[in-house]
Predict the 3D structure of the following.
Amino acid sequence: MTVHDFTVEAADGGSRSLGEFAGQTLLIVNVASKCGLTPQYEGLEALYRDLHGRGLEVLGFPCNQFGGQEPGTNEEIQSFCSTTFDVTFPVFGKIDVNGPESAPLYQYLRAQAPGEFGPESGFLYEHVKKSRPEAIGTDEIKWNFTKFLVDGEGNVVRRYEPTVTPEEIRKDLDASLV
């Protein structure tokens, strides 16, 4: 099984096979409109515009599980992304990334790359330690803007915790793209 085996909900309620991204490097991110990390949309869009021609696809998955920071409808989320950050990469339908209702894609991503979330995540580690202590030391997504790098074959290469910025990921993307 690989990421390409999953079908996800599009923002318009339809479905989309991730198999259509075979051969491309993916950066899969759970996103939110009202988070302190929301400005990362700008960096994600910059990566997408700079590296799309070399085979990068950024895929955004809105999630409202962290502090209620993505309360809007799919239509409102699409509007926010385009008007606030001029996002042109695909942003899919809102999903859960943790718990019994988590999207199968995210169950798979978490199992493939459980993450390394600790004090090096600074303010966010302290926040999660206080607000969601049960998540520390698990494969759960800790907060919005967790990123997964997936190679052209659909294999999960690496997980980046939310405080790792798109700009910091650039060197890994440059190394994995043609």
About this structure: Residues 29 and 172 are 16 Å apart (CA to CA). The first strand starts at residue 7 and ends at 9. The beta strands are 7-9, 15-17, 25-31, 56-62, 147-150, 156-160.
